[in-house]
């Protein structure tokens, strides 16, 4: 019998891969079935992702993951099945204006998120729009002016999307030079390389904080938790867990960190449904 009482999973690169119709934009049916079985045993399966809740709601409902989840890079903790928002942070319009003006001026693609929608400027419609709307399985709301729009919405996240790692470096430096009190981290999606996805949230609202808040909310302990991710950013919550895992497609830096844990495992790639191998190894 497994010692694990809680499962925390990143989404992209862990349960969602790059094979459209196979494991993208949603997990393979075998993975969905396994998550449903684990949750039915009374073990919470917490999805922890930079995606907004509407992009993972189908996964949550079909696998009947009846517990809170970390979404929008930690800015929203939500239980879609119970229709309950556990917590939500926002970026003030005054601060958002500086970020938006900066990136638009430099012609870096930008999306702005509210709880249930996301927005782009008409002037930035491009192949990036098509690629990301496929990943999110939802089209953006196109506006003439993002600045005018943000006065009317509550902003949960701002997302610059860089064309490649070189533009990511530029976007990060621009953010650093602004000197604003927000958090940022970068991630990728297997089907959208070389695009780099930035996640700007209110200061301190991260995946790590989100997982900590959910475990506290559910009165669960990290020592009995398995954390699984594929990016270096995922280490922020995996390092707190008693058990850790990644996949063959995970970042090399993450693999080294995870292998330093006493109870860890590195499974096959996401496109081989490696999460199933990981769950089997930990007797889940």
Automatic annotation (TrEMBL):
GO CC terms, sorted: cytosol
SUPFAM superfamilies in UniProt: HAD-like
InterPro entries assigned to the protein according to its UniProt record, in alphabetical order: HAD-like_sf (IPR036412), HAD_sf (IPR023214)
GO MF, any single term: magnesium ion binding
Recorded superkingdom: Bacteria
Protein name per UniProt: Uncharacterized protein
Species: Candidatus Gottesmanbacteria bacterium RIFCSPHIGHO2_01_FULL_39_10
